[in-house]
Amino acid sequence: MKNTVLHQADTRGIADLGWLNSHHTFSFSHYYNSERMNFGVLRVLNDDTVAAGMGFGTHPHQNMEIISIPLEGDLEHQDSMGNKTVIKSGDIQVMSAGTGIQHSEYNKNKDLQVKFLQIWVIPNQQNVTPRYDQITLNPADRKNKLQQILSPNPEDDGVWIHQDAWFHLGQFDQGFTATYTVKKKGNGLYAFVLKGNLIINGQELNIRDGFGLWNIDTIEIKASSDAEILLMEVPMKI
């Protein structure tokens, strides 16, 4: 019985608006693919590049957990909760949209592009009070290991969301092998390769490939080259 799905980088949807170049792993905006709607509660995985000085004007969200992971440059955030801040590489930002929020995101720099991942997770509670959080991570904590950056628990490492999900970042030297054990029975794992080449349970993966697995207890990750990975454990039932 098949329990994996491979989303190669060049099969993603593309939106090129001039000021924004976005690759959509799952159906989003004008990109629709009935076979690429979600992976469990993981609904959106957008790989965004925003031109210098440009950005997303004020727009609404509701009943979604929204995670931003900057990869390069500085992204200025402002929202209806009164937050005005900048997120940059090394940070992670989370918003629980709940009953409704409005926010904008702009490239703070006039001479450099900004790259970031925009991730939406369907929450396990509807109409919660909107919430914002942002932390700075220590990259050294993911050197040849998996650094937890998100969980369901406010007391744990990283940010937290209204869902039984755990996210980790890893930065591996060529030849390094890591094992990950699923934390909650019934959850699946979705791996997204940020840099380099990896092999997960025998599947070869290249930069920006996505690979989902379910009905498993553990996985083995081997770096074929120096590599970076975002590993997302999420419930498979919405």
TrEMBL record:
The keyword Metal-binding applies. Residues 149-234 form the Quercetin 2,3-dioxygenase C-terminal cupin domain. Its cofactor is Fe cation. Transmembrane segments: none annotated. This is Pirin family protein. Residues 14-121 form the Pirin N-terminal domain. InterPro entries: Pirin, Pirin_N_dom, Quercetinase_C, RmlC-like_jellyroll, RmlC_Cupin_sf. The keyword Iron applies. It comes from Flavobacterium soyangense. Binds 1 Fe cation per subunit. One of its GO terms (molecular function) is metal ion binding.
